[in-house]
Design brief:
319 residues; mainly alpha; three-stranded antiparallel β-sheet; 63% helix; binds zinc ion
């Protein structure tokens, strides 16, 4: 294991790129199948890859990430169905995430694992929310539990943390944890790792704050403004990164939601033939994909949150 860890970063990166492309391919399966209503259609493990349009099984060499899509020029080999650009996009993004990971976090550490897992989940959730307005429980509920569980090692081995300088040196201050056998599950970005209290508060507030906002919205508009999936998304992000980051994600994600989401929903409302009343009254019926907004701002908060917060307080404080 330690020999593997001593390979140069670019070699880790190259290996992880290939692995990430395959994981991205699985991401497409999750995005397509998890929002389905029929439980049999939701099976992401046993069912082989098939064309969603004509159900023809996909040949293994057509299923190679990115290259299969390029080779087929974006069309199903059997029926000519246009394969959405989302497929190579998800594969490419996941490949990039994996390839970038050893440059951002020391490979093999727990913060690296957390970053990869959260990053992949955010890619999948961005696209289920974008295409189906849905954030599947099958992904989000286990992540809430996992975020809390990942705070356990520091409680079991409290003396095992020692601070090291991470890659980049600019914003990372990673805690590396050594269990006596290997330098592994390590930690955190800024100072102390996320404690179980911060993770628990993140999960509870992450669910509670938007639930409260929704209760107010419902009292005013008589309709749900925020979906339940959005609460759960904030809950697992809170469990992973602590309540401070969760609040940052909540507030920062409202900016793209207001700038992009409201005009988008107004446009859909204006075009809706079944709309009753004014365009503004139709706004509530057109859900905003808030999960997309949260997914987009999360990396900003994770990497630059404290800096952004200080800059914001500096602006408020004036001089
Ligand atoms: Zn087909």
């Amino acid at each position: 294991m330690s020999i593997l860890l001593e390979f140069p970063t670019w070699m880790h990166s190259l290996f992880l790129l290939c692995f990430g492309l395959l994981v991205g391919s699985f991401g497409n399966v999750l995005i397509h199948r998890l929002p389905q209503e029929d439980p049999e259609e939701r099976d992401v493990v046993r069912k082989g890859s098939h064309c969603p349009a004509c159900k023809t099984p996909i040949k293994p060499w057509h299923n190679v990430p990115l290259f299969g899509w390029l080779w087929l020029r974006g069309r199903c080999a059997a029926c000519g169905w246009r394969i959405p650009f989302r497929y190579p996009l998800v594969e490419g993004l996941t490949g990039l995430l994996f390839a970038a990971s050893p440059w951002l976090f020391p490979i093999g550490t727990l913060i690296w694992f957390k970053g990869l897992l959260a990053g992949f989940a955010l890619i999948v959730l961005f696209f289920t929310d974008f295409t189906e307005f849905m954030l599947p429980d099958a992904i989000q509920l286990p992540l809430i539990a996992l975020g809390l569980l990942l705070t356990l090692p520091q409680m079991i081995w409290p003396d095992a943390f020692r601070p090291i300088r991470g890659a980049g040196d600019l914003f990372l201050n990673v805690e590396l944890w050594h269990n006596g056998l290997q330098p592994a599950p390590g930690w955190h970005l800024y100072g102390a790792p996320v404690t179980w209290r911060e993770a628990l508060a993140g999960a509870v507030l992450g669910y509670g704050v938007p639930a409260g906002m929704n209760a107010i919205y419902r009292a005013l508009r008589k309709t749900d403004g925020i979906g339940m999936g959005d609460f759960k998304m904030l809950a697992w992000l809170g469990a992973f990164w602590g309540w401070q980051a969760m609040l940052g994600i909540l507030f920062l994600s409202t900016v793209p939601m207001i700038l992009l989401g409201v005009p988008f929903a107004l446009l859909k409302s204006a075009r809706d033939p079944q709309r009753e009343g004014s365009v503004w009254e139709g706004l509530g019926q057109h859900m905003l994909p808030w999960g997309c907004g949260m997914a987009a701002v999360t990396p900003l908060v994770i990497f630059f949150g404290p800096g952004l917060w200080e800059a914001y307080m500096g602006l408020l404080g004036g001089r």
